[in-house]
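Example record

Each entry pairs one chain with its bound ligand, ISC.
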Amino acid sequence: MTRIFSHTRPIEADIVDAFCLLQKGFTDQFVYYDKQRACRYMGLGRCIALPTLDDAESELEGPTAQPPVFFSFNRFDAENPAPPDELFEAFPRLKFMLPEIVLIENERGTLLQVNSLGPVYPGRIERFARQALAAPARRRETIPYRIEPDSRAAWRQVLDAGLHAIAEGRVEKVVPSRRLKLVAEHPFSSKDLLVNLIDGSARGTVLLYRYADVFFCGCTPELLVRKRGSNLESMCLAGTCPAGSSEEDRMRLAAELMADSKNRSEHDYVVRFIREVFNRTCHDVDVPSEPGILPLTHVQHLCTPARARLLEGVDLWSMMEDLHPTPAVAGTPVGEAKMLLRRIEPYNRGFFAGACGYVDGDGDGEFSVALRTGVFDGEIGWLYAGCGVVAGSDADAEYDEIDMKLMTILSAFSGEDGADTAASRSTRSAAADEGSRSEARYASAIDCISGTAETLAGSTNNQRVEKGTIR
Ligand SMILES: C=C(O[C@H]1C=CC=C(C(=O)O)[C@@H]1O)C(=O)O
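Structure tokens for the complex follow.
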């Protein structure tokens, strides 16, 4: 049995500023930061990594009874025998990683958690709290870069192989991706991209996993699974159109997307899959028959929220494994589509489209699908994005759709919203940044998706010490 001591206390700091200050001393860094709701966890250092939470026991110390927060970043296809890109190779294969420090914003408040394998020395907690409080306001920096364009001809070959497999009846849908190399004018830090994603116009959940000098980050709109007690949520996300350059334009494009049979069929594969998984592992399953629209800064998606109550004995990890990958990132049937991707994609995706998130000591937590992401080191980065292909898909249209999706991770290089450096201009396509207008739209879409999330009661009382086995 591993014994973990978690001391948690409230702090009156801005957790992003505090993270930016404290991160200098830590090579391991973890972020799961929902821009829309107070579900924000920023971890530094590694206290311990565990293969399972079954053999861990936590002792909760300090004024706030917050169970320890473990991060978990998982590869898209962990069994793929092809070697991953060399930057991904740097990351160890660890399941549950508990940071030494976690800065938290959730329903319990703004918190500082210090984790240790022995009782936490109070002086250490106070030192981190003092530093967090004194953190200066962060600043955004624009990082000039160029993209080494990938070839449309190579993409057409990938797409032809996918369409051929569809024509032969081996798969009904497949979701191939493109990978692009980015070269910046000078080396940049994980902090710079993180701050631009958090403070910029990208919508969704910001992810970061840094190990030594290499880091993986991005901002994904796709929730894979969220668990609070027995309440479970997921999201069927597939089918894309541009964001549009005005509200009128956006609504017109959204209406066209809703009426488009190809996009609707791409979407329906995901709905059927998630409904089937939920019907097997849950009760009170609620998956509407009609999708809505999830408007983002650069694109819009067809989106169907999925809710259910978990059967007793089923945990978040097993739900994550049952749900991932969905047909939104692999295809249908999922196993056949994964095999096809191993064959037709000229690289191993690593964490791109993997399940990344956190689990706390009560067994609650969430995983998102790591879309709109890249892996970075020094002045180099590899960016990834994919698209759903069904019978009748057109290679050039899908290539352009991926360009639009790439704009989200490229926004991590802009110190100002709408900043358009000469270097980045050539890679940008039609969709424009929409700032606050799209913020409001996103808020309402996510509200409808996550309406049942606020189930954890905030409990804070003075110097409470709790023991518990981690589920
Ligand atoms: C695979 C990606 O997006 C998925 C999620 C939303 C819409 C998608 C689509 O319309 O193709 C994809 O299924 C990606 O962003 O790399």
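Residues 261-281 form the longest helix (21 residues).
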